[in-house]
Amino acid sequence: MIIGLPLVERLQGTQVCLQLGQGDSRHGRVKFDGQSLGFYANDISSKLLRSKALQKVALLSARPTKTPHNSDLTRLYNACDFNRLSPNGRSLSQSPIGHAELDVLFALCHTAHLLDDLETADRLLKQLSPYLLEAHTQAIAPSPFLCTVEPSPWEALGHNLTSAVLAIGLRHPSLHHAVVQCTSRYLHNCLRAVNSASSKRPRPEDSTNGIEAEGTLELAAVSVSLLGFLEAASVHAEFYNVTERLDLVHLLRQILDENLMVSVEGVFSSIRTSGHLVRAVIDWKAYTKRYAASGRPLGAMLLQRGFMKLLVSCSSLQICTAQQLKSSDVFDVLISNGDFTLQEQQNDSTALIELVTDLAAESMRLLEDGSDYLQLGSAWQQRLAFAVKAHTLNTFLNCMVVDEDIADSDILLSWLEDAMADPVQMADDTLACVVLKSMAVIARFSPAVASSLSRSLPRFVVQGGIKGETVIVAARSLTFILRMLSQDAVITGLYSLGNVLSAQSATDRPLGGSEANGTANYSKATGYSQQSNGSAISLDLSGDEETAAAYGNVVRTMVSIATICQDDKITALAQSMLLQKLGRVSLAVDLHITMETAKLAAAGGPTEFNSLLKLYARLGHDAVVGRNSTILESVRLKTLYSYIVHSHSDTDQERQVLYRKVPAA
Asked: Is the pLDDT confidence value at 385 over 70?
């Protein structure tokens, strides 16, 4: 019987075992509940199916059983060709590992977080540890199916094995020391391999020497293996205590020194341009293309990003718990409305913060020194550099929160202002979001700069040319800063943004009857006078599209401020200011206002809600009469009305009454 994916998904039996074919790794059998299911991997899709079947079998086998020894996992252990360890002392990595063994190994790794039995977890740790210790030098048997191992066999090994052993250590504290020793030995082995491979690096005058070319490929394998380790360690950083994190960062700093980074750049450059027809070189050329196609061009910058991501995790754990970080990022914790309490600092906390701060400052210096070179690089290389910068700023911010005497907020603020002044950098969503969130955190811990930021952020929203998620993050950061100052600051901020929409309203026609239908009397309802408060922000853009986008950002920001504040008067003021702009600027602005003000219904009171319904009904009627399909479609969007109706109606009858106010097509 040939196995199929639906049948694999139905594997629920307690007696699950695996039998791999001998010799030809394309054959195999899966058995459960007394049935023997065979498969033959004769193409890539079948090979993927085989991998999924193995993972399913492994996960089912990891479930708790009544028997003291899990025979199903034992069969999986035996499927790994651990006998490749020869009695003459030859290392495991010198014997090529086949694709079938990789499948079983990865399947076992995926069960690590499910093992409740200490004896079973200990056996799995002992099974995986030898593989991890030599993952960076593991020989891989040639196979056409290696293309299914993403992104490369060495990174997949490093990531899966590290994740598995750390998961075992987290689930079973009695194995903590053994796991620490395992990961530490792996890194020391990497350090020795780096030093050895560097001595074999080809010289410019003798670049075809076979031994030196071998050293080049060895360094490439170590580099991508470290990528997998760094990613896994950053996800499971809570496994290490403060002292162990300090030792870990120290060791990684020794490995990822400047000499290695320069060598790594040379290695992958030589691989890309190599004309050798050797099988290993051809395979590595394919790997470099695969990484580049996925937006992760191999090189020093990719390693630096992995290292800085680990530093973000280590420094974040000095601020909040791992449980908090699983549900939100460190920025959300720092700018939450509740009282914030730092994690209790231990003996080595200061030493760790000092080291991480120095590494962040060094990373920023390298980024600034190489900024001219990066401008000549590809778009993906620039994006990687921006990701490194985002992690660097995040790391330094964490250190500042823990101890401002070690990480100076003025230095961080200067970096943030430089980044915000560069449109190219702020066009990257990841970096822009980190910069904007960091400004809000600085305002909380350094109130003296909050007033200045309350003026610079609105200008950035208008003039920065931002879009998408960055607009929402900017609005959240601005709202947090304004609320820190006072309610008057929130009102002034709204007027500053509203004045931007008034720049052209004097020459444009008003929407007929708009003020007569509920918007003119908002001032009395809110208690705020509609005078032109707030500083003027100039809007000097080159084209209609940029101007329309800037107006859209202003509208979204004003709505976000009102919805975040959850204050009826602030909501009424924002709604009044926006609705008075209908028909006074442009059709694009009208569309933005029509769509965005619907979100205010959930934040405002019944008066504002009823005014919105009346306004939408009138706009829909006018659009039908004037045959303006654009406005009509905007008003009729079901999401708009369903948002309002479901936010304020408690019964189906009320929803039906309100929905009848939707204008007919």
From this structure: yes
